[in-house]
């Protein structure tokens, strides 16, 4: 067998590309009443044997079929039988070595994904699927990041026993705390919260949890095995390949019905291990290798996909389109997007726009890599520094804002604006306008910015505050302040599930394989910290009424004016007008005071309604009006609105 470096040279030869790049989009298995077609791309194979099984994990093959080599390195077999529910794998012989492999393009599989399954997808649709539709695009994207198992595993959620930790839990629309019938949990809680998008942490088939193992096994799931198949441990039955497909569709259907859009977390930058279907069918084609033959490891997970190579790029594009089309997924969050080729990201954007309308499917990702990567040719990574090369509708997690608000995530002791750091006032003002027109970031429009204070990585916001602020009595105030700051910044809003109820992971910062008992959402805590959660609810409800902050056009930054700052204090005005509409307030004035003392602020001319203070984020429902000066308490955000003249006349 050739070495990795030799393979790299072989694939770099334009002759390989010429001869073997396959333009078809029918790889894998196509199965319907009319028949079943198997197609595998394995250009260097000397022979490919297809094995059919009745079972997804054990037993011997009931049929062994010699595949026929066709154009462009594709091996094919067609039968007029509908092989729905039949399991299969391949023996691929390359350089005289035989390797058993599942199908990298599989759409269904048996337990733990070891054998692929032929599936007639029409037979996996839940009732009413053809009528399933995403709710209309909201005025603001408020993205809530949740892990399927964390969401419903805890008994306090009041979910039916058999649905705990499963896709099915999202079908439960009216769960309450231990089933008390009063205190909402689960989807009902999310609805009260006003979030618009549910971002699901990985739910493609991943490798770190044994689907036949203990029900309490836990992992975040950033270790893909079968990119186009749902994870089995979240299904009520992982051993019958069609069940996970139907149940994931049911989950998305239920979320749509309840008014949420669904974003899928996708990890195309690396695979669980190098011992993958990719590697067994086309050795080293799908992976980056350095010139000296060492494996590229920019993901720090053992390998990086070579997504700048045509067939790998096509694979990823087709996979995204498949989830959008077959599962009605409304958006994608790209893990370590910095490892993906800018051209590929823009191509995915373009193809989604062509099919669904411009920006209809939301796309964003982490604009960084974990380490150096061996990207080939003139490809550029979708990194922060290349933001200007990315489409206006591809967003990035904005660590600039996150760090300005609460301090660096890599240094536990580092603080940000809300927990006492000095000198961040300018960064906070830049955060407010989503870093448009700044030296740090070349932002085309606020569509490109995900504004947030916490995600699954790193400490929770609560733990960060707890570990940096000695005085326990200040924690709630500071948490409220952090929320009010980032929710009055432009960009798309994002939060880790439970941030609104002081979620804790005991200070740990990377809990990907910690027990579920640590990672689970604790719905008792949601009600224990009801005051904080209520504060979040008010902020979210208010945000949706503030077009000046929701504006995603390239000119949005112009709305922020009258900027003022002094140590640990910031204030600014927001033009809140909207063409052809009459928002309740035409001008906003926002004050952030992170000092331990009161701050006296002179208001711009006019009568001002206090919309939010540190105690109540629903003040906009009342009509407390002031003019002249206002005093901001320690650790307080004040949001004020000037009554729209048109509105006034109506009143
Ligand atoms: Ca799995």
Description:
It is a single chain. By secondary structure, the chain is α/β, with parallel strands linked by helices. The protein has an 8-stranded parallel beta barrel. A hairpin with a 2-residue loop joins strand 20 and strand 21 (569-575). Helix 7 (310-326) packs parallel to helix 8 and helix 12 runs parallel beside helix 15. It is globular. Calcium ion is lined by residues 112-113, 205-207, 211, 225, 231-232.
The overall pLDDT, averaged over residues, is 97
Unreliably modeled segments: none
Number of helices: 17
Note the overall shape.
globular
Strand order of the largest sheet: 10-11-14-15-16-17-18-19
- The fraction of residues assigned to DSSP E strands is 15-25%
Instruction: Determine Rg (CA atoms, Å).
Output: 26 Å
Helical proportion, percent range: 10-25%
Bound molecules: calcium ion
Tally of strands = 27
Q: For the record, give the distance between the C-alpha atoms at the N and C termini, rounded to a whole number.
A: 81 Å
Main sheet overview: 8 strands, parallel, barrel
Structural class: alpha/beta
């Amino acid at each position: 067998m050739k070495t990795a470096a030799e393979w790299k040279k072989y694939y770099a030869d334009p002759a390989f590309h010429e001869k073997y790049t396959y333009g078809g989009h029918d790889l894998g298995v196509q199965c319907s009443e009319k028949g079943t077609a198997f197609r595998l791309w394995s250009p260097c194979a000397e022979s490919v044997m297809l094995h059919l099984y009745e079972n997804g994990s054990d037993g011997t093959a009931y049929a062994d079929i010699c595949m026929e080599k066709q154009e462009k390195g594709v091996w094919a077999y067609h039968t007029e039988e509908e092989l729905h529910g039949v399991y299969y794998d391949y023996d691929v012989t390359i350089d005289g070595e035989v390797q058993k492999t599942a199908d990298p393009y599989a759409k269904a599989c048996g337990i733990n994904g070891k054998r692929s399954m032929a599936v007639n997808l029409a037979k996996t649709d839940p009732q009413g699927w053809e009528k399933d539709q995403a709710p209309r695009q909201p005025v603001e994207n408020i993205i809530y990041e949740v892990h399927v198992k964390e969401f419903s595993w805890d008994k306090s959620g009041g979910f039916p026993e058999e649905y705990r930790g499963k896709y099915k839990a999202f079908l439960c629309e009216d769960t309450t705390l231990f089933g008390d019938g009063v205190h909402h949990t689960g989807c009902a809680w999310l609805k009260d919260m006003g979030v618009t998008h549910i971002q699901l942490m990985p739910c493609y088939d991943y490798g770190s949890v044994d689907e036949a193992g203990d029900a309490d096994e836990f992992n975040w799931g950033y270790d893909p095995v079968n990119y186009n198949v749902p994870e089995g441990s979240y299904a009520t039955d992982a051993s019958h390949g069609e069940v996970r497909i139907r149940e994931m569709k049911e989950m998305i259907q239920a979320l749509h019905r309840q008014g949420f859009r669904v974003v899928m977390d996708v990890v195309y930058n690396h695979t669980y291990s190098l011992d993958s279907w990719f590697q067994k069918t086309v050795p080293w084609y799908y992976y980056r290798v350095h010139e000296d033959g060492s494996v590229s490891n920019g993901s720090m997970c053992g390998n990086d996909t070579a997504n700048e190579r045509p067939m790998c790029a096509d694979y990823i594009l087709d996979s995204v389109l498949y989830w959008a089309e077959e599962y009605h997924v409304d958006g994608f969050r790209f893990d370590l997007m910095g490892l993906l080729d800018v051209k590929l990201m823009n191509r995915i954007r373009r193809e989604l726009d062509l099919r669904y309308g411009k920006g209809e499917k939301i796309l964003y990702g982490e604009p960084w890599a974990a380490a150096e990567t061996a990207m080939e040719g003139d490809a550029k990574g979708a990194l922060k520094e290349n933001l200007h090369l990315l489409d206006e509708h591809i967003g990035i997690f904005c660590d600039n804002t996150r760090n300005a608000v609460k301090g660096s995530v890599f240094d536990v002791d580092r603080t940000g604006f809300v927990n006492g750091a000095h000198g961040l006032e300018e960064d906070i003002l830049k955060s407010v306008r989503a870093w448009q027109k700044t030296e740090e970031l070349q932002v085309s429009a606020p569509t490109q910015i995900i504004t947030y204070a916490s995600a699954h990585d790193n400490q929770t916001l609560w733990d960060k505050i707890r570990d940096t602020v000695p005085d326990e009595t200040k924690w709630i105030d500071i948490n409220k302040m952090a929320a009010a700051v980032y929710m009055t910044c432009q960009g798309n809003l994002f939060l880790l599930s439970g941030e609104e109820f002081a979620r804790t992971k005991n200070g740990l910062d990377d809990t990907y394989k910690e027990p579920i008992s640590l990672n689970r959402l604790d719905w008792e805590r949601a009600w224990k910290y009801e005051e904080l959660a209520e504060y979040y609810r008010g902020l979210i409800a208010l945000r949706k009424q503030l077009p000046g902050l929701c504006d995603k056009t390239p000119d949005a930054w112009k709305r922020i004016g009258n900027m003022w700052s002094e140590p640990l204090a910031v204030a600014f005005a927001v033009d809140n007008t909207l063409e052809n509409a009459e928002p309740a307030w035409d001008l906003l004035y926002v004050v952030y005071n992170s000092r331990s003392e009161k701050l006296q602020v002179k208001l711009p001319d006019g009568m001002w309604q206090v919309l939010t203070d540190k105690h109540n984020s629903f003040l906009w429902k009342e009509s407390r009006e002031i003019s002249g000066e206002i005093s901001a308490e320690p650790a307080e955000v004040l949001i004020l609105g000037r009554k729209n003249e048109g509105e006034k006349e109506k009143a």
